[in-house]
Amino acid sequence: xxxxxxxxxxxxxxxxxxxxxxxxxxxxxxxxxxxxxxxxxxxxxxxxxxxxxxxxxxxxxxxxxxxxxxxxxxxxxxxxxxxxxxxxxxxxxxxxxxxxxxxxxxxxxxxxxxxxxxxxxxxxxxxxxxxxxxxxxxxxxxxxxxxxxxxxxxxxxxxxxxxxxxxxxxxxxxxxxxxxxxxxxxxxxxxxxxxxxxxxxxxxxxxxxxxxxxxxxxxxxxxxxxxxxxxxxxxxxxxxxxxxxxxxxxxxxxxxxxxxxxxxxxxxxxxxxxxxxxxxxxxxxxxxxxxxxxxxxxxxxxxxxxxxxxxxxxxxxxxxxxxxxxxxxxxxxxxxxxxxxxxxxxxxxxxxxxxxxxxxxxxxxxxxxxxxxxxxxxxxxxxxx
Length: 385
Ligand code: SAH
Ligand code: SF4
Description:
Layout: H1 7-17, E1 23-24, H2 30-41, H3 46-56, H4 71-80, E2 81-82, E3 87-93, E4 99-104, E5 110-116, E6 122-125, E7 129-131, E8 146-149, H5 152-170, E9 173-178, H6 188-199, E10 211-215, H7 219-228, E11 232-236, H8 242-248, H9 251-254, H10 257-266, E12 275-281, H11 289-299, E13 304-310, H12 324-336, E14 341-343, H13 368-383
Parallel strand pairs: 1-2, 6-9, 9-10, 10-11, 11-12, 12-13, 13-14
Antiparallel strand pairs: 3-4, 4-5, 5-6, 7-8
Helix pairs in contact: 1-2, 2-3, 5-6, 7-10, 11-12
Bound molecules: S-adenosyl-L-homocysteine and iron/sulfur cluster.
């Protein structure tokens, strides 16, 4: 057990002392739960292990059912703590079986989580924020702007509730990808905390090889993720020149492609591991064979694979999906040069559950930083006829 009290535990102890809202138990690693119960409730530290197991192994969310705890302690927990911070709000199943689960937070913010079934390896795509601040012009979530970060408990609970609702029929969840709403590395503290909870062998016990964090390229946080975790990394590359990438992704103005690649060359990986480069193919923007060649030039010395994603349309976007022939030729160019490349099958489009389709921006105009860049693109489109 760690002896120094974590910041999260200190904050929870204050919360308990001042009788504020109940403490979210999914916010804590097992070691922190031990600390919390020792310091906050005068219980032995193994209570931390017991509650952790109830939550993540026995899938129990009612304190009354946690029968190896004393009745008294169960009563205290009932009053001062809670298990699930998210309230299930609905499931929307696409024709292909992809299911978007929506949850409500205390402040009525909506969290979206996508369950993607596949023979033998179901994947859960989880959100790290409500909305996103990064302003990528092709992404629906960007139009919401950032509402707020999710807490570690809200991130973990997406997995716990999806497991409860989806796995009886579909089998277990093998992979977790941080590819839902939000930029995970813009909320890196809570994402790392959630990862540590997901990995615990005495709880959910996910393998570090089966958790992938996808980022638009926040370089300092990539370095930190590499130092503090050993999960898999995916980078949304999406363009091969700084000019085009900056037009699509404002983050590129802050950290250029070169700075990004430098950080990736330093990223600690075991010999069999690969970084995934995600590349959303957008008609007339980044879909030429010169782009394909530049992908090779940029990523050739980084152990990596390329994941091509056909652009998923959404309301009022000026962007379009390239033709099947263009995407086929792009992929074949890479295949012919021995690049590990695969095309992500488009899933869940009819329920707005596909990549880049999450969120509810409503009819409001997009935030100014997104609008400005889109206007530039639209005017060029008009000029090109
Ligand atoms: N914010 C993180 C993770 C969430 S986005 C990131 O950007 O990496 C997950 C993936 O969806 C990213 O690779 C992003 O480039 C892609 N994406 C965003 N909008 C899309 C769209 N309209 N069509 C297809 N893919 C999209
Ligand atoms: Fe945010 Fe990722 Fe969408 Fe960019 S693509 S706006 S980083 S969610």
